[in-house]
């Protein structure tokens, strides 16, 4: 496939994902006209759409060359830099989502009555729920990129699918949210993947490596998940709030 064709295909896929996510948010907004809980959830999703998907998406598009230049001027250890940059972006994404959970009163609800994170406490979420588990997943991708020439957009899509599986294992599968999780998780790794240097000796990517690249990060996180749930924070609740609508 020629480069212009790949570019058109990538743009079309991104537009489909964005349209899917915006359509879901608009439908929730319409349903929220008669239900304050759904309306509050829609408000939080608008915040996620605009601040993270829109904001980080524009940063990724217009700032990627500068990020790549800085990344490649700061010495060796590209795998470590990939992991650190992806972790920083994940921490930033959680700033947005936890802010939305804490903004429940602005949407007419109490904090914890409607939410999009497991807790309203930032440190609790990133240290015991989300980002701490993402770090070995980012490290797995750093390892993959050091050996195989995945394109940045491929990393975006594949880690987005990993994120969808992460969320499905945590709260149950919801196919309607597929676009949301691809966009949310994919933007954590697109910039680091774009900045990753073309190391000598990297091998071409074969088709059978794509499903492996989706599952490998999940497998890489299993030891840490076990350590968290069995040693560091045994009995720690998965979600600190009651189910939405039951409070």
Question: How would you characterize this protein structure?
Answer:
The chain crosses the membrane at residues 43-62, 127-146, 178-196, 208-233. Keywords: Membrane, Transmembrane, Transmembrane helix. With 247 residues, the protein is mainly alpha-helical. The chain has one domain. 72% of the residues lie in helices and 0% in strands. It has helices at residues 3-31, 36-73, 78-102, 122-128, 131-147, 152-171, 178-195, 209-232. Helix 2 (36-73) runs parallel beside helix 7 (178-195). The radius of gyration is 19 Å and the shape is globular. The termini are far apart. The model has no long low-confidence stretch (mean pLDDT 94).
Q: Biggest sheet, in brief?
A: none
The whole-angstrom Rg is: 19 Å
Coarse morphology = globular
Any idea how many domains? 1
Secondary structure: number of strands: 0
Question: Average pLDDT value?
Answer: 94
Low-confidence stretches: none
Number of helices: 8
Query: What helical percentage do the residues reach?
Result: over 70%
Which band does the percent of strand residues land in?
under 5%
Order of secondary-structure elements: HHHHHHHH
Beginning-to-end CA distance, first to last residue:
54 Å
Helix-strand makeup class: mainly alpha
Q: Would you kindly provide a brief summary of this structure?
A:
With 247 residues, the protein is mainly α. The protein has 8 helices and no strands. The model has no long low-confidence stretch (mean pLDDT 94).
